[in-house]
Design a protein that fits this description.
Radius of gyration: 18 Å
Strand order of the largest sheet: 4-3-5
CATH architecture of the largest domain: Orthogonal Bundle
Structural class: alpha+beta
Oligomer: single chain
Number of helices: 6
Largest sheet: 3 strands, mixed
Order of helices and strands: HHHHEEEEHEH
CATH class of the largest domain: Mainly Alpha
Helix content: 40-55%
Mean pLDDT: 84
Distance between the termini: 65 Å
CATH topology of the largest domain: Arc Repressor Mutant, subunit A
Length: about 160
Amino acid sequence: MGTEGASITDPNPALQQTVARVVEQLRSQGQRVTVARRAVIEALADGPGHPNVDEVYAAVEAKMPDVHLATVYRTLDTLTELGIVTHVHIGHGPSVYHLQEPGRLLGHLHAQCRLCKSIVDLPADVLAEARARLVHDQSFTLDVDHVALSGVCGDCARDASTLVN
């Protein structure tokens, strides 16, 4: 079999369903499904919620040592341009990536705790009022899914309050 249809993962049904959906999305856009692209898609579908490029590369390299870091970067860039992957700027660290939610122009938003660095997914509409106001008042369209909001998570806030008391 050629590289176009090869798979590198174990037969996890949920993972395979997600990969099949993304592969079909690629094909419907006239894109090739290479082994490297499939490996990156599988790493995103099977890995932690918001991996950075090094984490994606480590997952790919563990199964396919011949895939280079530059290939992973290019693949993530291409999948982002195609609307299949979302990249999010998190604080002062590296961007993180996740598969875009199917059928949604705007996926979910992100917040990062500035103390423990955890990333929290937020509903897509959490800033709807602010977005609408900016469009109305300033003719400015806010890209709310491109960067993470910063704050303190509930666990860290509770820990901080117990230290003060």
